[in-house]
Backbone:
């Protein structure tokens, strides 16, 4: 949609394995997956900056676990 | 920066003619000004004229409380939101806000990325029930098509999802061909709809 710039990304082998695996599972190219990760990171960061908490809920037990972002 | 994405055809119901409408992204200050100066007064005037005890659905106005200035304050500069405005005859005719970080729920595409339509808003004078003589037909369809196109552009294969206000349930199900996943108890008891890649292809081909 807007002008795009190119960058080189250096990843370790385990990091590249995770990127490959996630991209494969989500049906995305590696570029699209990195773009999506950046959006998610910004979204989480914006909520934490507002003092909100990120919680995961077990669908059966309804038990909640807080995601602690360091 | 605000960009014009394309020109689409809108049918003027009053003249019977087709007019050019321009789709922009993101929503700009002029679109919010149209909303504040033209949409809101029309909505509040219509609400004041409703008989006591009437439901807002009677005037096709279940979304009367949506406020685009407040939304713009939240989504401005965010990568996880994309906003769109449709202009025709020098006026904003439709507005849409989408989130790009939601996952699908429909079993065949569960946990795959989709474009989630947070808000889809058509100018009040285009709505049947709001007025006996609605002006433009096709605003909602163009905006849903924009959401589908963005989903394809982001490699989400056309998948979109949304919670519908009751006044729009039939439109999303019957006109857009989306799958009705029922009432969402965790989201104001609104119905949740999703469009699969196959449904998106059919919708775009209409």
Residues:
């Amino acid at each position: 949609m807007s002008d795009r710039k190119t960058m080189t990304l250096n990843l370790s082998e385990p990091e590249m394995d995770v990127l490959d695996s996630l991209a494969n599972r989500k049906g995305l190219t590696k570029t699209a997956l990195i773009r999506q990760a950046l959006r998610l990171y910004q979204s989480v960061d914006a909520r934490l900056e507002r003092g909100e908490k990120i919680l995961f809920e077990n669908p059966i037990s309804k038990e909640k676990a807080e995601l602690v972002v360091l | 920066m605000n960009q014009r994405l394309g020109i689409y055809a809108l049918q003027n119901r009053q003249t019977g003619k087709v007019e050019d409408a321009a789709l922009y992204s993101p929503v700009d200050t002029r679109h919010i000004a149209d909303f504040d100066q033209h949409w809101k007064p029309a909505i509040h005037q219509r609400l004041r004229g409703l008989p006591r005890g009437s439901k807002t659905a009677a005037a096709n106005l279940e979304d009367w409380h949506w406020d685009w200035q407040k939304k713009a304050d939240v989504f401005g500069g965010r990568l996880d939101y994309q906003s769109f405005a449709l202009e025709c005859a020098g006026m904003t005719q439709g507005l849409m806000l989408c989130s790009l970080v939601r996952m699908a729920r429909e079993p065949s595409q569960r946990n795959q990325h989709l474009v989630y339509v947070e808000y889809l808003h058509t100018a009040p004078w285009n709505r049947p029930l709001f007025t006996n003589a609605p002006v433009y037909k096709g605003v909602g369809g163009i905006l849903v098509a924009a959401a589908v196109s963005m989903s394809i552009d982001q490699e989400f294969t056309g998948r979109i999802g949304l919670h519908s206000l009751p006044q729009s349930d039939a439109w999303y199900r019957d006109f857009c061909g989306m799958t009705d996943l029922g009432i969402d108890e965790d989201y104001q008891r609104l119905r949740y709809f999703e469009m699969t890649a196959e449904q998106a292809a059919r919708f775009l081909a209409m």
Summary: The longest strand of chain A covers residues 54-57. Chain A touches chain B at residues 1-2, 26-29, 32, 35-36, 38-40, 42-43, 46 (CB under 8 Å).
